[in-house]
Amino acid sequence: MLVFGGGENKQGFVYALDLTDMNWNRIKNVQYNREAHSANLIGDSIYLFGGYVRRSNDIHKYDIKQKTFQKVDTTGNIPSKRYGHGSAVIEEKLYIFGGDVWTDPDTTLYSLNTNSNEWATISIASDFLPPPLEYPSMFNFENNLYLFGGYN
Fold first, then answer.
1. Rounded distance between C-alpha atoms, residue 33 and residue 147, angstroms
2. Surface-to-core class of residue 66, CB atoms within 10 Å of its CB (0-12 exposed, 13-18 middle, 19+ buried)
3. Which of 36, 44, 55, 142 stands the most exposed, by the fewest C-beta atoms within 10 Å?
4. Type and span of the H or E element at 151
5. Sign of the alpha-carbon torsion through 126, 117, 48, 46
6. What is the C-alpha to C-alpha distance for residues 138 and 118, in angstroms, rounded to an integer?
7. Are the C-beta atoms of residues 119 and 75 closer than 8 Å to each other?
8. Which pLDDT band holds residue 10 (cuts at 50, 70, 90)?
9. Chain centroid to CA 102: how far?
């Protein structure tokens, strides 16, 4: 299990918990000084988006096998800076919705294709559109995205 950043982790250290012996170790040469960001596993990499400490809409990727950490350059309809958003994965795509964006509320659903590193906005095919939400839970079930909770 990996822990990236967090509210009390001001230095931005990244920690790994070995689930066999329950020992914590700090991962050297990796720092991620954020809170209220998202972290999603896609393939052998953990994608981290947004967060708060400095306003952010960037993507970082930690390759679990290679133990490398890098910023990912993206193109397309890049989401505005935010924290407290919902995120989920379907196949090779990362989806982002809501969060505190420091501007007008945002009800746009964004998708990052992790093969091309290109962002897109997604039309929501529903008679009910969710309100702008902060801290919602979002998850994938049978290749459908579900949004639960949060507040506006």
1. 27
2. exposed
3. 142
4. none
5. positive
6. 21
7. yes
8. low
9. 17
In angstroms, the CA 117 to CA 24 distance is 32
The pTM of the full predicted model, rounded to 2 decimals, is: 0.89
Under DSSP, the state recorded for 40 is E
Considering its fold, how many domains does the chain have in total?
1
pLDDT tens per residue, range 78-114: 999 999 999 999 999 999 999 988 777 788 999 999 9
Q: What angle do CA 54, 57, 63 make, to 5 degrees?
A: 100
State the residue range of the domain holding 64. Answer: 2-148
**Which two three-digit tokens encode residue 28?**
């050297």
Q: Using CA atoms, how far apart are residues 23 and 17, in angstroms rounded to an integer?
A: 6
Structure-block tokens of residue 55: 């306003």
Q: Rg (Cα) of the chain, in Å, rounded?
A: 16
The DSSP bridge partners found for residue 38 are 49
CATH number where 94 lies: 2.120.10.80
